[in-house]
Amino acid sequence: MDICLYNGTEICTYDLKDESGIYYQDIVMEWKRRAAERKLICVDCGSPVYLAAGLIKEPYFAHYDIVSCAYGKRMESQELMRGKRLLYHMLKRSFPTKEIHIRHRLPNGLYATCYVKNGEGYDIAIDYRLQTLPIKELDLRVQYYDEQEIIPVFLLGIRQDKKEGQLSWYQTYIQNLSGCCAFLDTEEEKLIMKHHITYIENGKRKSKVYQKSYNIHNLSLAEDGRFLCDFYEDCESIKVELNEKEEREQKRRRDIREKERRYHEEQIRRESVLLAEQERKKQQNNLKLQEYQEWCKQEKLLKIDFHTVTLPEGIRRDVLLNCIEMMKNDQEEMISKRYLDYIYKLIKE
Ligand SMILES: [Zn+2]
């Protein structure tokens, strides 16, 4: 047990040591005397308690007699007690004028590890635990804090830090609440802050965990429940950087696509100009060829004496001479097929 009552006032084992973990032995002796006088009382059952304050383990209060007291039966690990002491001192440093409680019982029956009564501002509840809560209980707590306008600060034990490339659902829950997931390393006396960032890279979803560790003795908590450090800013600038990087990348891809499109359009335009030019030349050549053929035809027509040429059956000379006149006048379409075929036969001969 880390708290008990003395003359109706709550006293706490974490006040027995300074920030470096060194005992104030005069207070230890004082409290031991009060305990011997049966003046230290359990906050839960009212039975007298004694103080154990050895050099190896964290100090604690315990019942003199074996009693059926839930608080007295609860065994806490050295890590948890050490962590609570570090957090208690951090809170005292952060809020020197505020009332700070250990194992604070909330009106709904739940306990907060530490509690800061903030008078005019919002109260802060520290929830430090070495095991994860079931989601139902976590929801219940968070909903209660929200309703009561209490700022919760969730902290985890270092062994819950699995050092994977992402955070667990529980850690993500905490990150969503307070902007980071913090692990307390009681051996190193460090707070490791982590933030899982999901982002888009080359159109694909990616994730990374940004982390930074701080000496717990250099950290303070602000009234909004955030630690006074550069961690949150770092996270924001990393997110902005990743977004900007992706935007740059997307712009680069858009530019390439646009360039390709323009190049393609230019190719099509050039091809069509080329085709039109070829078509024009072809038509010009055809025209010249036609002119030449026409000229040859007229030449041949002049050379043949249609008055004397021997006529086959079915070709009349008068009609033939008429047809020749029409040809010379460029009226070929008016000549019947039979006569035209005959005239061409003559030209080719
Ligand atoms: Zn008790």
TrEMBL record:
<protein>
    <submittedName>
        <fullName>Competence protein-like protein</fullName>
    </submittedName>
</protein>
<dbReference type="InterPro" id="IPR010330">
    <property type="entry name" value="CoiA_nuc"/>
</dbReference>
<dbReference type="InterPro" id="IPR057253">
    <property type="entry name" value="CoiA-like_N"/>
</dbReference>
<feature type="domain" description="Competence protein CoiA-like N-terminal">
    <location>
        <begin position="36"/>
        <end position="71"/>
    </location>
</feature>
<dbReference type="Pfam" id="PF06054">
    <property type="entry name" value="CoiA_nuc"/>
</dbReference>
<feature type="domain" description="Competence protein CoiA nuclease-like">
    <location>
        <begin position="76"/>
        <end position="221"/>
    </location>
</feature>
<dbReference type="Pfam" id="PF25164">
    <property type="entry name" value="CoiA_N"/>
</dbReference>
